[in-house]
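Response to reviewer comment R2.3. The reviewers asked that we include at least one raw input/output pair. We reproduce the pair for Iron-containing alcohol dehydrogenase here without editing.
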Amino acid sequence: MQYDYGLTRSPGRILFGAGQINALPHLARDYGRKALLCTDERLVESGIVAGIKTDLRRVGVEVRVFDGTEPELPVSCVYACADAHRDFAPNVIIGLGGGSCLDLAKLVSLVLSGHDDLAALYGEFKVERPTLPVIAIPTTSGTGSEVTPVAVLGDKGRDLKVGISDPALIPDIAICDPQLTTTCPPRLTAVSGIDAMAHAIEAYTAIRQDTGPRAACERVFVGKNALSDHHAIGAIRLIYAHLADAVDNGEDDTARAALMLGSTLAGLAFGSAGTSAAHAIQYPIGALTHTAHGLGIGILLPHVMHYNVVAAEDSFAEIARAIGIVSSDTSNAEAAQTLVQAVQDLVIRIGLPRDLSAIGVPADKVPWIAERSLDATRLANNNPRPLTAKGVATILQAALGGAGDSTGKEVTHA
Ligand SMILES: NC(=O)c1ccc[n+]([C@@H]2O[C@H](COP(=O)([O-])OP(=O)(O)OC[C@H]3O[C@@H](n4cnc5c(N)ncnc54)[C@H](O)[C@@H]3O)[C@@H](O)[C@H]2O)c1
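Raw output as returned:
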């Protein structure tokens, strides 16, 4: 552990706990009398939206609902929501749902505050003016979007999803009520939970970057640091201990609470440290297979860790000790290998496939995926072990069930 630099950016208020959804009307009322609620049809059907509308109206807040959030969040969906509610001129935007709904709320806040061309904001630190306040209420324990400075969207003109990263995208308030996740079916719980685990592990093993006094002003993601480490380790402990229980029994309140706390902490961790190879490689895989973000991440994570073990041995060993799977006198080399195996076992235990072919990744697409993974320069450069096209191909061959060894020892790295 190193304690020389730390950065956390977070919402002004994070409320956590069962029943905290009931704080929403009072919090929203402080922003004015008009709220726009961004959600999806499933959450409307579940009845939760009706309850929220009633509670908001009771405190004098008029609420309009946009329930057209689409998976993979196409940019057209953001403009459709913003255009439909521009005249309403909301004082606050509420995002309720999985990462797609939260990202929609964050992006609609940008458009309604005068950022008409989202494409001009792709990348980092490009938001120009103050944005409308956002209250983010996650209903999955996964993305951490309720606390992060990033929103991800699909743009038809581009092969891969794109991101807008700026501290202005951090919601003003996050309400993390684990009771909202009890309806998540096992596969959604597994896929979103392993996404959160990847956020925390990738934040903890990110490279250390130059962290002079201007770092936090010039870069959204500043690499591994003392504060992101603190959040990441907390997240990994919670998720490792409780993910399988939540998958097995969706009504296990303790597991649900631990997972939500873990995914929010993981969001705080990667919101400053950034993510790396598993995320870089999932983007082209998601574009190719149209499978859930967390599913590709879950399959890739152990293979990426296997590849990274030579460069991240000490960090992996610290994680292994923190989650109690090795004793204090186990060598770092052995502890790191034990962690990689434990993460692989967890992925299988929660019912995800071991192999990318199970989600339709064809072996002949490896060169294309490898090339496109490296387009996500910021993520690739944040990986503890240098990531080259050959390195990604090595990871992919192992993740495709090939005889390959994802340590990639035969690969020469820059
Ligand atoms: N902004 C960020 O920091 C960030 C980080 C990681 C991922 N993402 C993005 O988030 C998206 C993935 O989010 P996600 O994994 O939360 O899934 P999602 O938002 O795409 O939702 C997946 C499905 O789960 C359903 N669902 C949500 N909550 C439910 C509940 N409580 N019960 C039953 N069903 C429920 C939704 O209706 C939807 O059909 C991707 O677009 C990804 O790129 C954003």
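The domain at 13-181 is CATH 3.40.50.1970 (Rossmann fold). The mean pLDDT is 95. Further pairs are available on request from the corresponding author.
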